Amino acid sequence: MSKVIFLVDMQSFYASIEKAANPSYQNKPLIVSGDPERRSGIILAACPLAKQSGIKTAEALWEAKNKCPEAVVVRPRMQLYIDVSYQITKILEQFTDCIEVYSIDEQFIDVTGSQNLFGTPQQIAKKIQQAIFEDVGIKARVGIGPNKVLAKMACDAFAKKSPDEIFQLNQDNLAEKLWPLPIGELFGVGRRMEKHLEKMGLHTIGNLANHPVKWLQKRWGINGELLWRTANGIDESPVTPSTHQEQKAVGHHMTLPRDYQKLDEIKVIILELAEEVARRARTHHYIGHTVSVQVKGSDFQVRTGFNRQKKLASPTHFDMDIYQVALQLFQKHWDGLPVRGIGITLSQLEKAEIHQLSLFDDPLEKIKLNETMDVIYQKYGPTAIVRASSLMTAGQAHIRAGKIGGHDKGEGL
Amino acid sequence: MQPNKLTPGYNLMWESSRMMLPEHKQVLRAHEKELNKQTKPLLDEQQITLFSEQINEAFHFRQAIKVKVFDPFETVYRIGEVKQIDGQKQRIKLDTNDGIEWILFQDILNVSIM
Fold first, then answer.
1. Is there a domain that residue A341 lies in?
2. Residue B108 belongs to what domain range?
3. Same domain, yes or no, for A208 and A322?
4. What is the 3-class SS of chain A, one letter each residue?
């Protein structure tokens, strides 16, 4: 028996939450936008009414205001969005225990075993839409398929456009429905890949699906075969509820308020990131073997920047160790051009309780110092003690403390 | 062989394509932990009498005992010598390898003499 997988997706999630929270905005166009004073001043979400006047997500706030001057503009409240997303997870738990949260507004669920209780896939989808709308006032779209990739494409390419916002895609209607669509609509095809495929004469999803897979493998390896499988609706990955349990890396990335060009300024940021990464690794009792640095250049046209990593001699979760390696990597690979964003990641994690001690440096003092700092952080928050360098104009520590994902945290539920 | 994005049964294809805020993941991890929370079982009264006899015996003959202690998230055993039985505060003092440990009567789920 084939499985029944849903992708449940929230319509313009952030904007819908703001509308549900404030009924007087109900019939007005509404946009959620980051701080226009800073780089994050872009449209994060626009309600369907606002989208009618041509507003697109990720464009600048002033562009959106030109298109629709009467739109209500609200600041993001990231903590609230996370809380509502979690509430929706709990609603879905009434239908099945097999849930994989894919992003803040998309969740995969496996309802194969729920059909005896709740009816046909169509009926279950309707019930889910109803439950979510009654509880949190948000419209959900449901893509149905025998696996995750078909559920995802049923949702993205069809459910969003169909009147009841439910669509089922399976091997029987794949060729008829999905294959005529342009190649850019295939899940996993970005703008660059779209151009490459079009140059090969593959303009529709069907063209790709019927292209010999070995040629795709030859050119793109695993990713080529993955796209071919996606076009043919093949996906053998199960809905995995435990997918967020294991932590593979601790990382933090920051888009800077302006382009930083001086090494002294960038050092401040690298240190702040190293501190954040180290602190998070310590709170979760992890220790990591590899430090990597991601740098984004300021020019969008010519992509500058790099992503380099280094394996450490002995694993660490201390800020100065991470900072030194990160700075070394940065100085080695930086081309001197203005920097728009920096990220630091600590990976190859293992539990901190068991690890080989370094022979040559004495970590006891470091351990005691960091333990003390962790207690202070826990009691008084992440900005209770900061390094003096964070108080310089380049520092971001205080601004960052009020943010989630680079946007205002706001109040939760 | 290392699993890749095409390996059946693995989830790498989706894990490499998703965007999740660390704060969101943390909420989900806490939820998962809460789902696996155990409640304390109700013990039979005769069972409790048996435990108290075993603890008394171990105390008098200075034998080491292994006590299963209730914890909502994990299975915990404590092994050590009974140093004191405190009827006032309803607890026993256990001398374990990790030092002195006080265990409340009500948290004891099982006792065996080593």
1. yes
2. 45-113
3. no
4. CCCCEEEEEECCHHHHHHHHHCHHHCCCCEEEECCCCCCCCEEEEECHHHHHCCCCCCCEHHHHHHHCCCCEEECCCHHHHHHHHHHHHHHHCCCCCCEEEEECCEEEEECHHHHHHHCCHHHHHHHHHHHHHHHHCCCEEEEEECCHHHHHHHHHHHHCCCCCCEEECCCCCHHHHHCCCEHHHCCCCCHHHHHHHHHCCCCEHHHHHCCCHHHHHHHHCHHHHHHHHHHCCCCCCCCCHHHHCCCCEEEEEEEEEEEECCHHHHHHHHHHHHHHHHHHHHHCCEEEEEEEEEEEECCCCCCCEEEEEEEEEEEECCHHHHHHHHHHHHHHHCCCCCEEEEEEEEEEEEECCCCCCCCCCCCHHHHHHHHHHHHHHHHHCCCCCCCHHHHCCCCCHHHHHCEECCEECCCCC
Cβ-defined contact of B10 to A237 (cutoff 8 Å) = yes
A151 in any annotated domain = no
Question: Is residue A225 located within the same domain as residue A323?
Answer: no
| Chain B environment of A244 (Cβ under 8 Å) | 20, 25, 28-29, 32
Task: Count structural domains, chain A.
Answer: 3
pLDDT per residue over A348-370, tens digit each?
888 877 766 666 667 778 888 88
Residue B79 within a domain: yes
Residue A53 included in any domain? yes
Of B11, B22, B24, the CB nearest to A243: B11
Taking the whole predicted model, whether its pTM rises above 0.90 is answered as no
ipTM over 0.85: no
CATH code: domain of residue A394? 3.30.1490.100
Structural domain harbouring A262: 248-404
Please report the pLDDT score of residue B77 as a whole number: 92
User: Binding residue per annotation — A299?
Assistant: no
Residues A370 and A271 in one domain: yes
